[in-house]
Amino acid sequence: MAGAHVNTVCFISLLVQLCAFTALGQDVFVIYDTDGTDYIYYYDYGTESPAEGTNSALDDWLYELMDLTDECDPNPCLNGGSCDTSVDGGFVCHCPEPYTGKRCHTVKDVCKNVNCGQGDCVLTTTAPFYECKCKAPFKPPHCRKASLCRPNNPCQNGGSCWRGPSRTSFQCACPHGYNGKLCDVGPNDCYEGDGEFYNGMVSETVEGEDCLHWNSYFILQNGADPFKAYEGHDGIGPNNYCRNPDGDDQPWCYVKKNGRLRWNHCNIRKCIGAPATPPTVTETDSVTAAPVRLFSQCGRPQPGRSSRIFGGKKSVPGAHPWQVSLQSRAAGSSGPFSHICGGILLDSCWVLTAAHCILSHTELQVVLGGVDLEKDEAYDQVVPVERAIVHEGYRQTPFALHNDVAMLQLKVMDKPYCAKETRFVKTACLPTQQFNSGKECAISGWGATETQKYGSNHLLDARVLLISQEKCKAPHVYGDSLDDSMFCAGNMHGGVDSCQGDSGGPLVCEHNGTHQVVGVVSWGDGCGKKYKPGVYANVGRFVSWISSYLNDK
Question: What's phi and psi for 123, nearest 5 deg?
Fold first, then answer.
């Protein structure tokens, strides 16, 4: 790091709440035959019940610490809650089912005392607001008893069911042309294009995993809400069928893997002779397209493409298209580059990052578009850094980092462009307004800090709340260490947070569909301490300085 090493400072901010669950073991074996039967599947579920999880939503105490001064305007109630002004001058949220909490920010734990055995607890719109959906061959209502082959045959489309060696195992022998664990994938079951309009009933992934129901409590519990994120998509409903509501390359679904929420593409083939999948770049990338200025609009991710797992370990490409991986190697070296910090793309040739990320005697490059640091992805763009400009007011003390911002000028790759705009690479906007404390914003990164290389191969993301300067400058928080060049956000309570933030990465707040970069991940006191949230460089204080470089073309 530039300047003296600070032992008491942990450069943090990605506050990722992880829940521990026990995975349900299962074995799938595939046997190929040549007598007209294509596939025989042997499927055995474990007999232990899945462990109960804990709610990962932000707790009420955090909202009590915020300065929410506008009462019901704007509406502080989340998830469709309505707001009334209370007699004491505060506000009261009236929450729709199944939400609760001061701001309707928490999902009611209606499944807490429900044991669905070998199934999944899903939410319903009528009391008791839950239902157990069973995996074959287990039976409702509690998914604890198995009905093997007779009288109920779990194999579909005329498949034959055979009992396996254990009391809960069975085999499906599928008719010619059918496959899948339950013979549920037919010869005419395919998707056209990218599968946006696929409305079939396949409910397993390419790895043989069972899809979760879109109304699964486990999905909501882990911070995702398909009905809100993909509102208006006809295929999203109380089912577990594969869909493509967000412009991916093919249908997908959520799965529960090792006790965590994941997603995967589905076991559906593409229709023969189907129209080609639309290209993954915008029309402006085509050499035959009419001349259009790239990056003409900032702060807009690919339409409909939102992060599927907020706070998880896998973020979909295009959800944070301004996210940059800043990578370095020793000057003059021919060795590989390694990820050291995050950054934010503001212009084709300019990246904003933290000043403390800039090291002397190093060669820098940025990688844009991808989400996996360990793999070369088709949408990656690698651009060398020609110049690093540290803010002239940057200084490091034993307690804080002041004016912790820097600009990176990129090398022109295809005149006049450095980075090229695609559906996976876009710019964030500079802030045009002041966001109130209590505003929910997004952070993303791979977990690179001063003390570790990075926490995950895959891009992480999380939601944090802006905290007022008054709260952050309290003596028991950061006191006089905090100045106007910085602010804090996240979790005051401590204890449950992971120090997995990318130094130099973005804190982005959304307003009317436009994403504005409000903060740059800077520093914090320790990891997971009570009253020690993450601290960010206050981008609003540096707009003129940043713009002087953006406008110097």
Answer: -90, 145
Which residue is catalytic, options 120, 184, 189, 404? 404
What is the SS3 assignment for 303?
Answer: coil
d(CA 230, CA 223): 14
Q: What residue spans of 33-117 are helical by DSSP H?
A: 60-64
Q: Running DSSP on this structure, what letter comes out for residue 451?
A: S
Q: Which residues does 117 contact at the CB level (< 8 Å), separation at least 6? A: 49, 132, 134, 138, 142, 143, 144
Evaluate if residue 507 carries a pLDDT over 70. Answer: yes
- Higher-confidence residue of 13 and 481: namely 481
Residue type, 310: F
Q: Summarize pLDDT for 522-533 with one digit per residue, the tens.
A: 987 765 567 888
Write the Ramachandran bin of 479: left for phi over 0, alpha for psi from -120 to 50, otherwise beta: left
Q: What is the pTM of this model?
A: 0.57
- The residue annotated as part of the active site, out of 444, 485, 503, 522, is 503
Residue 95, sorted as left (phi over 0), alpha (psi -120 to 50) or beta, turns out to be beta
For residues 250 and 191, the answer to whether their CB atoms sit within 8 Å is yes
* Interatomic CA distance for residues 102 and 98, integer angstroms: 14
* Beta bridge mates, 511: 514
Residues 6+ apart with CB under 8 A from 249: 194, 265, 277, 280
Say how far apart CA 416 and CA 392 lie, in whole Å.
28
CA–CA dist 162, 286 (Å, integer): 55
240, 211 Cβ separation under 8 angstroms: yes
Reply yes or no on whether 404 is catalytic: yes
Beta strands (DSSP E) in 186-258 are: 190-191, 252-257
- pLDDT, the chain, mean: 77
41 pLDDT above the threshold of 50: no
User: Coil, helix or strand for 539?
Assistant: helix
Return the amino acid letter for 479: G
N residues, the chain = 553
The CA distance from 57 to 78, in Å, is 12
Active site residue 194: no
For the chain, domains (ranges, CATH) are 71-108 (2.10.25.10), 320-410 (2.40.10.10), 439-542 (2.40.10.10)
- Identify the three-state secondary structure at position 47: coil
- Over residues 412-420, the mean pLDDT reads 93
Residue 222 has pLDDT above 90, yes or no: no
- Of the listed 105, 339, 356, 391, which one is catalytic? 356
- Residue 485's nearest CA partner among 434, 540, 538 is 538
Give the C-alpha separation, 131 to 7, whole Å.
51
Q: pLDDT tens, 445-465? A: 887 544 445 567 778 777 788
Q: Let me know if 249 is a catalytic residue.
A: no
Q: Measuring CA to CA, which residue among 262, 240, 265, 253 is closest to residue 122? A: 240
pLDDT digits (tens, 9 = 90+) for 369-412: 988 888 888 889 999 999 999 999 999 998 899 999 999 999 99
Instruction: Give, rounded to a whole angstrom, the gap between the first and last alpha carbons of the chain.
Output: 30
**Residue 190: other Cβ atoms inside 10 A:** 17
**Range from 11-25, 224-238, 491-505, 515-529 that averages highest in pLDDT:** 515-529
Helix, coil or strand: residue 545 = helix
